[in-house]
Amino acid sequence: MESRDKILNALKKKFSDTPAALPVLKAYSQSSIDLVEKFEFVLRGIGGRTVRANTIHEINEYIRQEFADAKRIVSLTDGVNGTPITPDIDPHTFADVDLIILQPHFAVAENAAAWITAERMGDRALPFIAQHIALVVYTDSIVHTMHDAYNKISNANYPFGTFIAGPSKTADIEQSLVLGAHGPKSMTVFLISK
Question: Disulfide check for 48: which of 19, 98, 182, 187 has CB 3.0–4.6 Å away?
């Protein structure tokens, strides 16, 4: 018997097939934290920006002004101007998308991440291939922590989902930060109060 097999057999004997129960984490009181302010603060810290809007019309006006040079804007958010896409479209046609506008299910204050699943993306490639990304988040959908986020999605059934937080960024060994190296150059989150 090889050493590898001996080690694996020893581990099998030591650990049962039934995984140990995970410890119950004590929830911390978050009642005094303003979730919207926390989300905005964290998003700024990771290179994104927030825009508070009262209506979809305000979002359309902001996009018209700030992305006036955009050649192709794709919107998968009701009421927000942009070209829609169909599920059968070839992802190779997304190479020229300057801005993608999506509406995630919810956002997380502690890390400014937003949870979005396949049915709200149009195609999995879109949030990662577009030059810029914009999200429309209703403020009452922001949760405190990733623990709260995982509690919301733990029993859901979806083919694909991801957390998106800020624009793409990378740093070399000299700590030179580059935004948009392998994904969107910017991320704008429109915050709407209901």
Answer: 187
